[in-house]
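tool_call: predict_structure(chain=1)
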Amino acid sequence: MSSRIIEVVDYRDSWNDEFRQEKIRLQSALNEDNVVAIHHIGSTSVKGLCAKPIIDILIEVKSLEKLDSESYLMASFGYEVKGEFGIVGRRYFQKGGIQRSHQVYAFLVGSPEAKRHIAFRDYLITFPDIALEYGALKREAASICDNNIDVYCNHKNSFIKEHEMKALRWKFS
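tool_result:
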């Protein structure tokens, strides 16, 4: 079994188009009465920020149970249905196999997890100096992790936690 290559690349303008195309697919498949919003999140949503070339998508829904009943629709678009995958109250979907191209996180509308992801994205967009610092940390993590996702994530963890707290205070205070 081949292992995933962890690569951080320069920002690509195509990421917004890839998100928009996937959003249209998801909107056409999922129950429009359940889906409240579909957001482009993660580093690929921040213009100028380097990132792993994976489009992160957050779906806010009224009912996770309704979404669960439609998981086969996500599978029909090539997503692997992963359930909560370690985070209570989340539904997680991956597309693209080992070198995934898209990840979808679904949460109840207005949940703390949804707010956290959106606040962090908006914070990085608003404060480009913090985004640059984050980008440098991501490149460093990729260079030292030896394709170990846990090492990569752990290297960024304290920065993310610190700035997520700042982002939540900034956005919701």
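agent: The chain has six helices and five strands. Proceeding to next step.
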